[in-house]
Amino acid sequence: MARKFQFDNPDDSYWNESSAGGSFFDDGGSASTAQATARAALNDLFDSSAAFRNNSKEGSRAEDVETVDWSGALVSGSIPSPLQSSRFDPHTKQSGSLSATDLLSTASSFSQRRNESKGNVSPQLARSQRAASVISEGSVESSGTGFSQLDHTRLKSEHKKLQIRYEQVRQERYHPPEIDETIRRLLRGESAILELYKTKHKKVQLLEAALDLRDGNVILAVVLFLKQTLADSLFRDLLLRMPRAANHYVAYLRDHFKFDDLSNILFSLGRNDDAAAVEFLVACRKQTSHAKVQSLKRAVQSGFSDPTLNQEAAIVADYVALLERQIPVDSSDDTASKQGREQKFKVYPKTATLVDQPTLTTLYYCALYHFDLPQNSFASPLAVKEQHKLTEKQYSWLVVKALARQKRWADIERVLTTKSLLGSAKINPVIPWTHLLTILARHDASHDTMAKYLRAIPSWEERLVFALDYKCSDVIVDCYVALKDRQKLIEYMSTKLTAHTKEHYYAEGVLRNSMNKWKN
Amino acid sequence: MTPSAGPTSADSLSAPSAQSSGRVTMSHMRDANRRMLFDFLRTFDGSKAIVWDGDLTKQFTLIAGFSELKEHGVARMFPLKAGQAAPQCDVEHVLYMTRTSTDRVRAIIDNVRGVRQDDRRRHHAVFVPDSSTLCRHKLKEAGVHERLESVKELAIRFYSTDADVATLLAPRSLPTLLTRADWSPLHEVALALDQLETVFGQATRVHYMGDWAKKTVELLGKKREQDAIARGHEQTTANQIPLIDDIIVIDRWIDPLTPLITQLTYEGLIDELFGIRYGTALFPKDRFFQKNQEKTSSSAAAAADNKTKKVALTSSDDLFTELRNLNFNAVGLTLSKHIKYLSEQTEERHKAITVRECKEFVKRLPELEVARDAAGLHTTIAELIKESTTSKSFLDTIQCEQEILNCLETERPMPYIEEAIAKGEPFIKVLRLICMHSLVSDGLKAKVLDQYRRELLQSYGHEYADTLVQVQRAGLIRERGEAGSRGIPLTYLSISRAGQTAAFPALNKAFRLLVSDVNEKSPNDASYVYSGYAPLTVRLCQYWLNPGWRSPAVADPMKRVPGATGVVQRATDIGPGRSVADGIKRSVLVFFIGGVTYAEISALRFLSSKDENYEFLIASTHILNGDSMLTSLNDE
């Protein structure tokens, strides 16, 4: 028959652990005296509890493994007298005169406490003692003679611990323990019955002690207890007075996605900025883009209406505007792409949705597919620039990228050309030269196109560096001329240029030209 | 089963105090962990299956291998996944092992709910290292409590990734402290330090620097006091000769700037470019010699999958031990010297004439083989790193960092940062630079901050608004002149409290953080790890060694450090433990709350090598770099 000890406390590994083999109940006759003693003591315990069970309710578990449930003790309400005589063997006495009866009443008061606590916090054995009991479990099952001495000592230490625990429990049966003690137990994950603190004053003290300790778990345990047992207004009041407690509660709600409670509590605490941030977060988590737009709009109206959040409100409004532009453009392009009306979608297939892409990506998209639309059109890149207040640099950077991909070199030149007051046009990109040239080269701009932009670089030295990078020989030669560097030019001509080519002739011509002045 | 289990966990942890000779290393901690793990497994009689939380498996490989688990009755192992029912297998116990975290509880609940009615196995939830009240509460709430045989905890806290380094592998501690203002991680640190002192003996003094450190030391004191009472003064660790004389606890947030700067040591760069996790890093496999892969017997080479190659980076590799702390500019030289030496050694076979000489040489062959493999391995890694470090993007970033540190532009956005945003460089990289800019300039001007923010959101998307708030809450980006940036309260008060005094130029002057004439090849100053920048944390440790924090010589600089500082002197009966006269350096443990970088670790090793009396052991909640730090603040 497999028997099983079932202590009320799920954490009490010592009692929970049992061996199906039943070696626990085997006769320890062959073992040494110490082991025999220990086993006798345990058998005593077991017998008494089994006897007990007979006049108590059925064990709570309906399993084929027979369960001996200690909590029966409470139901029967009395401690049977025969047990009182079952004392431990003198051997164990030195570790404390603990009797089985004592143990039993420990168990019953456990259950009692549990009833009081309405099952809210489970009684747990001291965390510090747990490791110890963990080790002793193994020995209970082991039956080799080698372990007997260990068994004995472990049982002794186990008894001692239970005795201490018993004392603890007995003392606090009717009185709540000191607040510090309760907090300490919460910290160690031990049992603590917060419900014993009835008055508001005590509850506040409890919270203060928890806050002083600064452990999030403890603070949260107390805060959740207060939330359950205090009136809403009182609870809110308390959080207002103790912002750190509020922080933990807020983090808890955030972690558990209880966003409604979260916004409510934040607003009532006057933390509008946090509440607004939560509304923003909730909106961002919405699955469909339409729901997102709606939530964001609502957030602008409620959370972000606070005048101190003007800037943040502008960001959210900007986000809304972006989404409202993206949604119609995306859907109309999807249809166009499916119907095959637009050649562009065949050359550059639209693979992802535009909705919820960043602003600059949107600009690139519009420049790629809709560059030729008039500015008042929804998908025009200029309209995107206008509405989202993009800088000239951001605009030309992305547009040049998109146009270069389509090899629309003339349009690129138009974007990068500014007209001066006198009407003379000049290539004056706001993008750094290095990036502009990289973009052009990556999309295989022709030699002439590259040369045109290289020649627009005002500084000769800089122009030379880039021209060398992109191997534009005529520009390079011109640069050497302008820098009056004859030797470098000759060196370049002899090493990099092949004779009888156009470039070589050009360089030769320059060197022969007597108009050119040289510094070397 | 062997009857070696000690009667209490305190005993099973007890220190190897007899081993007072030789260097104190973190391997003691590893041994203690192994004992704890095996004792724990032994408590479950019969065969066991372990359902692991993924991260935990990797962590536990630092403690024991599967074969050892097998020896202790672990028959099967499964990954713990949400939404799956308890795995079917024929065992007596099923252990669900996970780190203490509420979102992992979800997975346990799903598994246990899936336990069939006729299941005769016993199911246990095991939390490492603690089962928090909240975790238990959740199990109870879900109603699976009844089906669980027990809820246990396995208090393995420190994971030693190296001989002189141990961490809690708790990267969440920093965001919890900063964006939540939740100081619970300090309890974990205090418990870990307490455990450490159980293993190494009670330190004579505990020094702290920073508000978190102060609270931690206070909690540690309370814990030890309570334990002493609980034990009834039976056995105290105080009468054990301490292997660690001093513990220094330092807040990461005393110096939030350092992790943002690109590390320039060999190990630091590996972490920046490839990421080191649990003492290993992954590299593109096709770059390594095919030969190396076949030799999986060599500890350094174990192929992970087809594309990547997993390389163990620990002090068991002699060459790596030498290379790891070097500035990358010195790595090439050292490597070529090493290879030259190796080929000289190999050449010796020609000189071997007599049988005895040949025998000697053959004996050394395996050793040479390993050394040659290691040299090949690190040459390849160094080449990979060099590809990155010579790229324009990398060099530009380093230059931008230099410009920021030299306070070249405090009134306007940095042009390089703006270009990086426009080019769409990785968000975290840009954010790193902006954070640096803000910290060094003692906050950004409102206009500059707005410009950065607008461009970031336009380029990367509006969702990042929340990330920016988190980063601002942590104090990494601030508006100048204000304690917090417009309504965003700072969670680490010392940053705002310090105000003018903690501004970077003042700290730089007081601690000589920026060093212009640094020698990268044969360094004479710890600043070589960042090629001319010494982290404040490292300078503090340096001053601790000489002349000491309370010396009048450094009174002025010390005043500028934000946050509380002090020392707790422990009552001890046996006076100073191992004296310097024994010819052994005293060990000092430096614990960084909130993370430490590999470059800082290298700098501390450098200080140890220069000091005659002390040697540093390094511990932390986790090891970080700028990217991982900012990412952890981001994903809540």
From TrEMBL, chain A:
Region annotated Disordered sits at 1-20, 80-152
Recorded superkingdom: Eukaryota
Q: Mostly located where?
A: cytoplasm
| Species, as recorded | Plectus sambesii
Q: Which GO terms describe its cellular component?
A: early endosome; late endosome; vesicle tethering complex
Q: What is the lineage of its organism?
A: Eukaryota, Metazoa, Ecdysozoa, Nematoda, Chromadorea
Domain named Vps16 C-terminal: residues: 190-325
Name the GO terms of the biological process aspect.
intracellular protein transport; vacuolar transport
Protein name, UniProt field: Vps16 C-terminal domain-containing protein
What Pfam families does its record include? Vps16_C
From TrEMBL, chain B:
Enumerate the residue ranges of region (Disordered): 1-26
Q: Residue spans with biased composition (Polar residues)? A: 1-24
List GO BP terms, alphabetically: vesicle-mediated transport
Q: Which domain of life is it from?
A: Eukaryota
Which is one Pfam family of this protein? Sec1
Q: Which Gene3D superfamilies match?
A: 1.25.40.850, 3.40.50.1910, 3.40.50.2060, Syntaxin Binding Protein 1, Chain A, domain 2 (3.90.830.10)
Similarity comment: family membership: Belongs to the STXBP/unc-18/SEC1 family.
- Annotated protein name in UniProt: Vacuolar protein sorting-associated protein 33A
Query: From which source organism is this entry?
Result: Plectus sambesii
